[in-house]
Specification:
24 helices, elongated, 27 strands, six-stranded antiparallel sheet, alpha+beta, Calcium-transporting ATPase, cytoplasmic transduction domain A, seven-stranded mixed sheet, 753 residues, single chain
């Protein structure tokens, strides 16, 4: 359980590790920057970073000698004085509390009381001749509703910032000094209601992501020393045996060692239908067990689970600023102080030349209200937050707003072959020994070398050897040779398994290379890859032992997925592979790519990405293996095939598909296009509304309460427009799930018939 700010945290832990707080009540980017500066200036703090989109505050204390409770209380007090609420998480990336219900928001209380007071003042003003009573009620409405605004404004000024709270405070005080009590009160009421609605809306959106942290249960049923006990999930260790009963959520990533069940993996992969899992299958924390009881061996600590990594990456994505947001933030930083100066000049110049100081001061106050850049500042983050949340629910992991925006400009997509366009689960089709070599010996030696490897072709060789009940010897000194193969020492001799390029480098004879070429050409005509096996000798040459044909299958529905990708705006699809020309040609024809490059080493894939960029513009790369990592990092947008992909590929990529389904790629590009379009709509709406309102306000056609209504109305419109991304994706998920259920029911009916 998380500790609330100001509450005592059990024990005095002297640690300089970052402290992470969930902050509620923030309704604009300016608020976040003010909180960041105020907390960052505390004497015990090294640095503070606020993510408005994620609603988090990350603080680095000075050193491990600081009293933990004092630091937490200081931070809590600073955030509270700024008008917001901070809740401490137990640890970085740990469980967080849910955001408070909207009706308990303290801003809502002051807004409601201020509204009641303003209505009472208006009614009394219409029925009583004296102005004293309605003015007193209007003043009370201003004090009650305006106190949180003024407090936040003073905090911003103390941090040497001019934000919307400062502008609104000046406007309300100015209205009161001019005797416009009714308008001053209405400004406070409208502003309070508007900012409260924005804060509640943002908190609900952020809470949808925070809820991921609560998918894993708090306790797990563990078998230790023959006794089943309940323990905290955080205390689980690798190799613990966990019993998961029907309906329970899995507490940790692991491997099923007993039992069989259907697992609902929607939270991890976005798959709408349960997936059958049995002995030897990998399962993930946060997934829901179906009707069978299973025993799971824990393979990762709770802090290292796939779910924990997803949450961590999503929060990092929220914290990163998209290019459009950076541009807007830079503009707003100059724009707001400039408008204050302009408003002062309008009041001064207009008053001097006309002599009507009240009118021109009033117009300057209207200008200050209109100038609030709130709608403009939130136009991008609200869209990015909604899009990232929608993508996460759909099994697409987005690491940052920048990647999401960049994907919308991609016209060329490059694909790795093995494990991306193909299933990545090849099988040994045939084995031809060379010379006097024995077929079983060649397979056993190849399996010994490939046993430590995670490459799909290597797993196919090991699986065939075990299937044929071959005795696989122990290999030492294993070394992966990306793009070429692998080698290891077996029974005192170095054995090499890999491409003809590796054989050539090892010194295999010209006759043997010709022999390899003939067989490889035959295999390639059937879409099979050839791996040669050789033994190095003391004279620096290598003896060819045989060649193994390995076949992989194209993923079901790949051709349709690539066609849908073209419909989403992609103009060119390219396949990059380290496989032979003949194999690449066969697979390329089956899946329908525009062009392909074969015989590529990892660095050559990166070169191919650069060449494609020069010829066609921004390029996205889709891959899943270690050898794809350089190309993923080189591409404008790197996309990893998530759960099945290697950790290196996931780290190198900007986006990840958490299920092995390329149809999700089309959804990702569609989401990117819609996100960019909505950001442009929001920015345009904000700027046009501001320009019109500023012109009319300067000419005297807009009063204070209309200015506030226009500002808050635009902000709420921008927020709701951004949230359309989440709603549309949610509707698509529901429709997809219903369609899958209908197809599933139809399949079952046919089978039954």
């Amino acid at each position: 359980m998380s500790a609330s700010v100001g509450e005592s945290v059990v024990g005095k832990t002297a640690s300089a590790t970052p402290l992470v707080f969930d902050v509620t009540g923030m309704d604009c980017g300016d608020c976040a920057l003010s909180v960041e500066r105020v907390v960052g200036r505390l004497p015990q703090i090294d640095s503070a970073t606020v993510s408005f989109a994620a609603g988090t505050l990350t603080v680095n204390p000075h050193n491990a000698g600081e009293d933990h409770d004092d630091v937490v209380r200081s931070i809590g007090g600073a955030v509270d004085r700024a008008g917001y609420t901070a809740v401490l998480r137990e640890k970085f990336g740990g469980r967080c509390v849910s955001v408070m219900p909207w009706w308990r928001n303290r801003k809502l209380t002051s807004a409601f009381v201020a509204t009641v007071l303003w209505i009472a003042a208006f009614v009394v003003g219409q029925s009583v001749a004296s102005e004293a009573v309605p003015i007193a009620l209007y003043a009370a409405a201003i004090v009650v509703g305006g106190f949180p605004i003024m407090r936040s404004g003073l905090v911003a000024l103390s941090a040497r910032r001019i934000d919307m709270n400062v502008l609104m405070t000046i406007s309300v005080i100015g209205a009161a000094l001019l005797g416009e009590w009714s308008e001053g009160g209405l400004v406070v009421v409208l502003f309070s209601i508007g900012t409260t609605l924005q804060a509640v809306t943002f908190d609900r959106t952020r809470n949808a992501i925070r809820a991921l942290l609560d998918l894993a249960p708090n306790e797990a049923s563990v078998e230790r020393d023959g006794v089943e006990t309940l323990v905290a999930v955080d205390s689980l260790q690798v190799d613990d045996i966990v019993r998961v009963r029907p309906g329970d959520r899995l507490p940790a990533d692991g491997e099923v060692i007993d039992g069989h069940s259907a697992m609902d993996q929607a939270a991890i992969t976005g798959e709408s239908l349960p997936v059958e899992r049995g002995v030897g299958d990998e399962v993930y924390a946060g997934t829901v067990n179906g009707s069978g009881t299973v025993l799971v061996r824990v393979t990762k600590l709770s802090s290292e689970s796939m779910l924990a990594n997803i949450v961590h990456l999503v929060e990092e994505a929220h914290s990163s600023r998209a290019p459009s947001q950076q541009l807007v933030d830079r503009f707003a930083a100059v724009y707001t102080p400039a408008v204050v100066v302009v408003a002062a000049l309008i009041a001064l110049v207009g008053g001097v030349f006309s002599g009507d100081w009240d009118t021109w001061i009033y117009r300057a106050l209207v200008l200050l209200v209109i100038a609030c850049p709130c709608a403009l500042v939130i136009s991008t983050p609200v869209s990015i937050v909604s899009a990232i949340g929608a993508a996460t629910r759909g099994g697409m992991l987005v690491k940052g707003g920048s990647a999401l925006e960049d994907a919308g400009g991609v016209k060329t997509v490059a694909f790795d072959k093995t494990g991306t366009l193909t299933m990545g689960r090849p099988t040994v089709a045939s084995l031809i020994p060379s010379g006097n070599a024995d077929q079983g010996e060649v397979l056993a030696l190849a399996a010994a070398v490939e046993q430590p490897s995670e490459h799909p072709l290597a797993r196919a060789i090991v699986a065939r050897a075990l299937h044929d009940a071959n005795s696989v010897p122990v290999a030492t000194g294993f070394a992966a040779l990306p793009g070429r193969g692998a080698n290891a020492t077996v029974d005192g001799a170095q054995i090499l398994v890999g491409s003809d390029r590796l054989m050539r480098e090892a010194g295999v004879s010209t006759e043997a290379l010709s022999w390899i070429e003939r067989h490889a050409t035959t295999f390639a005509s059937y879409g099979q890859s050839a791996l040669s096996v050789a033994r190095s000798s003391d004279d620096g040459r290598a003896e060819l032992l045989g060649v193994i044909a390995v076949a992989d299958r194209v993923r079901p529905g790949v051709r349709a997925s690539l066609a849908a990708l073209r419909q989403s705006g992609v103009e060119r699809i390219v396949m990059l592979t380290g496989d032979r020309e003949e194999v690449a040609s066969t697979i390329a024809a089956q899946v329908g790519v525009d062009e392909y490059r074969a015989n590529l080493l990892p660095d050559e894939k990166s070169d191919a990405i650069r060449e494609l960029r020069r010829r066609y513009g921004p390029v996205a790369m889709v891959g899943d293996g270690i050898n794809d990592a350089p190309a993923l990092a080189t591409a404008d947008v790197g996309i990893a095939m998530g759960v099945a992909g290697s950790d290196v590929a996931l780290e190198s990529a900007d986006l990840a598909l958490m299920r092995d389904d390329l149809s999700a790629l089309t959804q990702l590009f569609d989401l990117s296009h819609r996100t960019v379009a909505i950001i442009r709509q929001n920015v345009t709406l904000s700027l046009v509304t501001k320009a019109v309102a500023l012109l009319l306000g300067t000419l005297g056609f807009v009063n204070l309460w209309i200015a506030v209504l226009a500002d808050m109305g635009t902000s709420i419109a921008v927020t709701l427009n951004g949230l359309r991304l989440a709603r549309r994706e949610r509707q698509r998920e529901i429709a997809g799930a219903e369609g899958n259920r209908d197809r599933d029911d139809g399949t079952r009916t046919v089978a039954a018939d």
